[in-house]
Amino acid sequence: MKDKLLLHICCAPCGIMPVSSFKDDFEVVGLFYNPNIHPYKEYLDRLSSVKKLSIDFKIDVIYEEYNWEDFLKELILTNNTFEPYRCEFCYKMRLIKTNNIAKEMGIRYISTTLLYSIYQKHELIKVVADEVVKDSEFIYKDFRPFYREGVIKSRELAYYRQKYCGCIFSNYDRYKK
């Protein structure tokens, strides 16, 4: 019997390669917890695709409440500026939740699909994981070499493909440029 791994899933396209890889060694349980995603329509599009991913890849997924108000309040209260803290805050928030749920469920291993994206800050994710993951073992795996393969598969599976990281700030940045 395989050990379980709780995998934080940011979106379906980013989930394909990590889920495929981790399923070789673990029983993968997904966690869709992303209160950073804005606007709500974007959240719903990603949620719908993750539900399809869970069926396509035969994994159970936990769907946590969409609580964007708390995300923004906490970000503003904990820091007076948004740069460069916003990404660190976002990683912390989601990895803490993943760690806590894994502890509640008795799951020893955790990871995140953020490790698939060529746009995420991998070194920062590792630093944050070292800092906040206390009750589980964080599995770091660099899925970036499989980025192109994942894009092709996500198109074949007709998953919703977003055009930005998800937060209100990254949405603004894509138009600002």
Question: Which structural traits does this protein have?
Answer:
single chain; 177 residues; alpha/beta; five-stranded parallel beta sheet; 7 helices; 5 strands; globular
Walkthrough of the structure:
With 177 residues, this protein is α/β, with parallel strands linked by helices. It is built from 7 helices and 5 strands; from the N terminus they run E-H-E-H-E-H-H-E-H-E-H-H. Strands 3-2-1-4-5 form a 5-stranded parallel beta sheet, with helices on both faces. It is globular and about 45 Å long. 36% of the residues are buried.
Shape, per Cα inertia axes: globular
What's the main sheet like?
5 strands, parallel
Walk across the major sheet and give the strand order: 3-2-1-4-5
What is Rg? 15 Å
Summarize the model shown.
The protein has 177 residues and is α/β, with parallel strands linked by helices.
Write the layout of secondary structure elements.
Blueprint: E1 3-8, H1 12-22, E2 26-32, H2 40-56, E3 60-63, H3 68-78, H4 85-105, E4 109-112, H5 122-132, E5 137-138, H6 147-156, H7 168-176
Parallel strand pairs: 1-2, 1-4, 2-3, 4-5
